[in-house]
């Protein structure tokens, strides 16, 4: 870790993550390099290694930040008072802001975790677990009728679903053309819409 204040170190790490996020919006994971990331920061490519050992660890930290922001939104939702019937839509809408998180999970998680240190992975898994607690707290607050077993069932059906949300809601033009020629109907839905459909079903399940 480079010398300097913790505040400076944190600011530089955030600058690297911001640069990485910008590139990830327009380029695939495998084509992004340290040189490209450094071009969007205020310091050199070699300086990045002072903060992250590998490119995969940069992306893992970006994913961790995305999860932390989702956790903050979940905690805020758990603290709100709202009619019971408004909760499914409010809960589902939170994921509309987490496009980067969903894309990383579905497209690149295996490579990212494989190229990261155990220490970095443990840090990410802690925040990942916090998100499960956040979902649980939301359900306990807004659906107090749900038993602990039902909440656990909700979580273990909801989380695998998250891995498929991005590919379905962001099919490329080529993918859509292939589906059309193959006779596969593709109904375009937003992240919030497709999530709401599942959440409604899970909340109705006994």
Structural summary, described in words:
The protein has 206 residues and is an all-alpha fold. The protein folds into two domains: 1-51; 56-204, Tetracycline Repressor, domain 2 (Orthogonal Bundle). The chain contains eleven helices and no strands. The protein has helices at 6-24, 34-39, 45-48, 55-79, 87-93, 99-107, 109-114, 118-142, 148-169, 173-181, 191-204. The chain is globular and about 55 Å long. The model has no long low-confidence stretch (mean pLDDT 93).
CATH superfamily of the largest domain: Tetracycline Repressor, domain 2
Radius of gyration: 19 Å
CATH topology of the largest domain: Tetracycline Repressor, domain 2
Average residue-wise pLDDT = 93
Key descriptive features of the protein:
2 domains, single chain, mainly alpha, 11 helices
Short description:
This protein has 206 residues and is mainly α.
What's the helix and strand layout?
Elements: H1 6-24, H2 34-39, H3 45-48, H4 55-79, H5 87-93, H6 99-107, H7 109-114, H8 118-142, H9 148-169, H10 173-181, H11 191-204
Helix pairs in contact: 1-4, 4-6, 4-8, 5-11, 6-9, 9-11
């Amino acid at each position: 870790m480079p010398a300097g204040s913790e505040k400076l170190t944190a600011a530089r790490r955030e600058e690297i993550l911001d640069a990485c996020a910008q590139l990830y919006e327009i380029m695939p994971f495998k084509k992004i390099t340290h040189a490209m990331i450094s071009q969007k920061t205020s310091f050199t490519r070699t300086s990045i290694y002072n903060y992250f050992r590998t490119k995969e660890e940069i992306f893992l930290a970006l994913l961790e930040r995305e999860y932390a922001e989702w956790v903050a939104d979940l905690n805020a939702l758990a603290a709100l008072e709202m009619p019971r019937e408004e909760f499914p839509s409010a809960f589902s809408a939170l994921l509309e802001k987490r496009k980067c998180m969903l894309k990383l999970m579905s497209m690149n998680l295996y490579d990212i975790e494989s190229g990261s240190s155990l220490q970095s992975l443990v840090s990410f898994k802690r925040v990942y677990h916090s998100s499960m607690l956040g979902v649980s707290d939301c359900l306990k607050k807004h659906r107090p009728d749900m038993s602990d077993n039902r909440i656990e069932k909700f979580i273990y059906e909801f989380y695998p679903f998250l891995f498929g949300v991005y590919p379905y809601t962001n099919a490329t033009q080529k993918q859509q053309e292939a589906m059309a020629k193959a006779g596969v109907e593709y109904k375009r839905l937003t992240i919030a819409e497709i999530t709401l459909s599942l959440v409604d079903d899970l909340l109705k399940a006994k």
